[in-house]
């Protein structure tokens, strides 16, 4: 119980002026899909790399009636997800959930839920490096000009290198996309498996990078196209295995080591999706044998 | 290729040198001025071989170099007439593009020494003037090889850079290159100086063919038999020399 | 002979405060012509090259360029987008140090293919085969296409830089001491290659060099600079065989006979 004599946090931790500043940045980002809007990122009570950008975005859009879900690598119960969820429960006193369908705001690190997002939902991505051109062009002054002038050849240089070195486009996460035929955007380190989910999603998608002080956005129903070559088209990973727990297929699977004798299994990375399926009766009989399950990472050619 | 068009002043001089003077100012020696020639005036007509005579150091090579645009001219005019149009251009103005254009279409020059280019074979040195005029590589190489064969250069040398050749071999490569193109005006600076008798006769034959085709030739030949074989007239450069006779 | 210059420089000046980088520089470059800018270190030749290629801002003067559509604007009139497009399609820049002009951590093939991708080529196989053709044209074995330039010798890197510049068939190439950092034996090969490519492709070139031998081999015309000014210009062989300015005479007199 909070002692009423002590000063309370402002709702959702950030002061109202800061939230207004961030909301203005968000509105601008929504108005220019895929464009990185600078914002005055605040010090948050957690280190950079723990989602400070996403937390500030969430804090700025959160209302008392919102229902918040936080995931990290698809799971609701990992450290990062638990602590951010606890943070908002404390500083905003909002309802939290692990159910994708029940949430109004989903803050995520590295995944998009398997359950399709709906109109009215907002997904907030935590972004470590917002600049998709950074890997080949270290100068921020130069990458800004490149965005302004739509000079995106470098992205293809990177994809070319992938094919030349690996025989296929080996970039499997943070796979660059073109937004509404204009800006090239880093979708944050989600697996490319999730890239198609961004395309024309009915949900509002917001991206916050705390250390790099950038916010960008995809309004609902925005075209999001993964970049590729005519003769090496974009494809997502395919898993040969099904989830060892809920028997789901065509979902993103994590490999789990079960013992020190080579035992392993593949399970849904999205814990809510997996649990929902199991509660509805989808079960797999018994644990898999050693090395039985096998994931086949797609390899074009 | 320029053809002899009788309707346009057939036989008119292709080269007219008028009152040309040349001196060198040597700034490294306190600006001392070395006069070379003054008031040089002569003409060369199609089919004519005018030989510049006089002792060494009198300025004969300098006159050729001025006409090729390689030396600047202090005063005077060097008029080059286009055989088919009759148009006249003054090369002494020194405009680099004019000089380059005249070198390309009107004036050929065989210097005393071949300037070699690293890695470029003798055959390519000779074929280059054809290549730069758009002749297809294979055809250019064939013509270059034929020319070198005529000058008795051992075929084993064709594909080697001439840097290591003997003086006579280099000179033959140089002559071959200079004779590849049918320029209306040809400047020859002692082309036979380091050749044996056989090759000298080959060169004399080549010069005669050029003259018969209507080329205007201006040359320096210290070799008396060659001079007698090709000269149609001789001009004593001593008349223009500003240097004290030794 | 083409009667319109591709580049025209008038009264160009670059000042750094009171210090003059270059001043009163006027000259033209015609299509297919190689112009050498020579002079010792500090003569302003590199400053001049950088101003003309818009890598550095000029203080005053005109620089006009003949666009492919025959317009002849001052480069200052072009928008940044148009200028940058020009720089990666119609122009090339060969740096003295290949590392300045290459992406050292990207394969040779990608280095050559980058300009193609920059202008919208999206067919991997096509980009790769053109990159491979260009590697062979600069005498780099096509089998090295996936190797990084860091594994290349100095001469190979310089040839790779040349290929990377030429793949879009530019019309004007700027070169800053292109053989300056190479061993003599390697220099000859690069020079010979440049000489052939320039004549095969009909390129216009502005080459800055302090090496008169390089200028003699590659250029038709020569501009001699001293203390930021042009002291003499003309046909390359005329300037070298009959230099008139005291400084040019000093330069020419300093060449070792071969």
UniProtKB/TrEMBL annotation, chain A:
Residues 279-301 are annotated as: Disordered. The keyword Ion transport does not apply. Pfam families: PhnJ. Its EC number is 4.7.1.1. InterPro entries: PhnJ. Signal peptide: none annotated. GO terms for molecular function: 4 iron, 4 sulfur cluster binding; alpha-D-ribose 1-methylphosphonate 5-phosphate C-P-lyase activity; metal ion binding. Keywords: 4Fe-4S, Iron, Iron-sulfur, Lyase, Metal-binding, S-adenosyl-L-methionine. It catalyses: alpha-D-ribose 1-methylphosphonate 5-phosphate + AH2 + S-adenosyl-L-methionine = alpha-D-ribose 1,2-cyclic phosphate 5-phosphate + methane + 5'-deoxyadenosine + L-methionine + A + H(+). It comes from the Bacteria. GO terms for biological process: organic phosphonate catabolic process. Catalyzes the breakage of the C-P bond in alpha-D-ribose 1-methylphosphonate 5-phosphate (PRPn) forming alpha-D-ribose. Belongs to the PhnJ family. This is Alpha-D-ribose 1-methylphosphonate 5-phosphate C-P lyase. It comes from Microvirga makkahensis.
Automatic annotation (TrEMBL), chain B:
The keyword Nucleotide-binding applies. Residues 15-246 form the ABC transporter domain. The keyword Nucleotide-binding applies. PROSITE patterns: ABC_TRANSPORTER_1 (PS00211), ABC_TRANSPORTER_2 (PS50893). Keywords: ATP-binding, Lyase, Nucleotide-binding. It holds the Pfam family ABC_tran. It comes from the Bacteria. SMART domains: AAA. One of its GO terms (molecular function) is ATP hydrolysis activity. Belongs to the ABC transporter superfamily. PANTHER family: ALPHA-D-RIBOSE 1-METHYLPHOSPHONATE 5-TRIPHOSPHATE SYNTHASE SUBUNIT PHNL (PTHR42798:SF7), LIPOPROTEIN-RELEASING SYSTEM ATP-BINDING PROTEIN LOLD (PTHR42798). This is Phosphonate C-P lyase system protein PhnL. It comes from Microvirga makkahensis. The gene is phnL.
Automatic annotation (TrEMBL), chain C:
It comes from the Bacteria. Residues 7-252 form the ABC transporter domain. One of its GO terms (biological process) is organic phosphonate catabolic process. SUPFAM superfamilies: P-loop containing nucleoside triphosphate hydrolases. Pfam families: ABC_tran (PF00005). One of its GO terms (molecular function) is ATP binding. InterPro entries: AAA+_ATPase, ABC_transporter-like_ATP-bd, ABC_transporter-like_CS, P-loop_NTPase, PhnK. Keywords: ATP-binding, Lyase, Nucleotide-binding. The keyword ATP-binding applies. The keyword Kinase does not apply. Belongs to the ABC transporter superfamily. NCBIfam families: CP_lyasePhnK. This is Phosphonate C-P lyase system protein PhnK. It comes from Microvirga makkahensis.
């Amino acid at each position: 119980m909070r002692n009423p004599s002590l000063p309370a946090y402002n709702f959702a931790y950030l002061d109202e002026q800061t939230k207004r500043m961030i909301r203005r940045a968000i509105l601008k980002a929504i108005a220019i899909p895929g464009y990185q809007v600078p914002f005055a990122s605040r010090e948050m009570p957690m280190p950079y790399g723990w989602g400070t950008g996403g937390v500030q975005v969430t804090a700025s859009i959160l209302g008392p009636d919102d229902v918040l879900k936080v995931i990290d690598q698809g799971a609701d119960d990992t450290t990062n997800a638990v602590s951010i969820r606890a943070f908002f429960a404390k500083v905003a006193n909002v309802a939290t959930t692990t159910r994708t369908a029940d949430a109004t705001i989903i803050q995520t690190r590295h995944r998009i839920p398997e359950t399709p997002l709906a109109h009215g939902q907002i997904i907030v991505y935590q972004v470590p490096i917002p600049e998709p051109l950074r890997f080949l062009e270290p100068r921020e002054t130069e990458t800004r000009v490149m965005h302004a002038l739509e000079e995106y050849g470098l992205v293809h240089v990177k994809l070319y290198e992938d094919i030349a070195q690996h025989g296929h486009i080996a970039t499997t996460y943070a796979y660059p996309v073109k937004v509404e035929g204009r800006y090239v955007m880093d979708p944050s380190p989600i697996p490319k498996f999730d890239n198609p989910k961004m395309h024309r999603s009915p949900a509002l998608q917001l991206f916050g990078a705390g250390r790099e002080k950038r916010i960008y956005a995809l309004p609902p129903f925005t075209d999001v196209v993964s970049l590729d070559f005519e003769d090496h088209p974009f494809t997502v990973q395919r898993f040969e295995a099904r989830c060892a727990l809920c028997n789901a297929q065509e979902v993103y699977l994590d490999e789990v080591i079960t013992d020190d004798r080579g035992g392993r299994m593949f399970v849904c990375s999205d814990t809510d999706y997996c649990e929902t399926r199991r509660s509805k009766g989808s079960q797999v009989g018994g644990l898999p044998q050693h090395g039985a399950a096998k994931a086949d990472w797609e390899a074009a050619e | 290729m320029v053809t002899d068009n009788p309707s346009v002043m057939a036989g008119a001089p292709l080269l007219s040198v008028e009152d040309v003077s040349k001196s060198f100012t040597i700034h490294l020696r306190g600006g001392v001025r070395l006069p070379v020639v003054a008031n040089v005036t002569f003409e060369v007509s199609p089919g004519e071989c005018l030989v510049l005579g006089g002792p060494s150091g009198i300025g004969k090579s300098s006159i050729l170099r001025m006409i090729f645009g390689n030396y600047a001219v202090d005063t005077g005019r060097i008029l080059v007439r286009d055989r088919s149009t009759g148009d006249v251009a003054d090369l002494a103005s020194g405009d680099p593009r004019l000089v380059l254009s005249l070198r390309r279409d009107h004036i050929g020059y065989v210097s005393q020494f071949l300037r070699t280019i690293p890695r470029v074979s003798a055959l390519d040195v000779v074929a280059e003037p054809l290549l730069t005029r758009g002749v297809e590589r294979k055809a250019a190489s064939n013509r270059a090889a034929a020319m070198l064969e005529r000058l008795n250069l051992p075929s084993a040398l064709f594909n080697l850079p001439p840097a290591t050749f003997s003086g006579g071999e280099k000179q033959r490569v140089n002559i071959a290159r200079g004779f590849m193109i049918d320029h209306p005006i040809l400047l020859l600076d002692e082309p036979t100086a380091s050749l044996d008798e056989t090759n000298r006769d080959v060169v004399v034959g080549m010069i005669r063919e050029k003259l018969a085709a209507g080329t205007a030739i201006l040359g320096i030949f210290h070799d008396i038999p060659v001079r007698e074989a090709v000269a149609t007239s001789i001009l004593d450069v001593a008349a223009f020399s500003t240097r004290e006779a030794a | 002979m083409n009667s319109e210059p591709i580049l025209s420089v008038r009264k160009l000046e670059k000042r750094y405060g009171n210090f003059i980088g270059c001043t009163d520089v006027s000259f033209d470059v015609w299509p297919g012509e190689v112009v050498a800018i020579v002079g010792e270190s500090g003569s302003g030749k590199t400053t001049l090259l950088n101003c003309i290629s818009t890598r550095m801002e000029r203080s005053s003067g005109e620089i006009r360029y003949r666009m492919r559509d025959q317009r002849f604007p001052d480069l200052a009139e072009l928008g940044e987008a148009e200028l940058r497009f020009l720089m990666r399609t119609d122009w090339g820049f060969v740096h003295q140090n290949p590392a300045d002009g290459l992406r050292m951590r990207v394969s040779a093939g990608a280095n050559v293919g980058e300009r193609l991708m920059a202008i919208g080529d999206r067919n991997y196989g096509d980009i790769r085969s053109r990159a491979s053709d260009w590697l062979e044209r600069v005498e780099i074995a096509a089998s090295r296409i996936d190797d990084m330039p860091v594994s290349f010798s100095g001469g190979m890197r310089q040839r790779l830089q040349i290929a990377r510049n030429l793949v879009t068939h530019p019309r004007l190439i700027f070169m800053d001491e292109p053989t300056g950092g190479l061993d003599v034996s390697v220099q000859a090969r690069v020079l010979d290659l440049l000489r052939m490519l320039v004549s095969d492709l009909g390129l216009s070139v502005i080459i800055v060099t302090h090496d008169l031998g390089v200028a003699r081999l590659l250029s038709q015309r020569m501009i001699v600079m001293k203390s930021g000014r042009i002291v003499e210009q003309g046909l390359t062989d005329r300037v070298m065989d009959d230099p008139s300015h005291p400084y040019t005479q000093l330069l020419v007199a300093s060449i070792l006979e071969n």
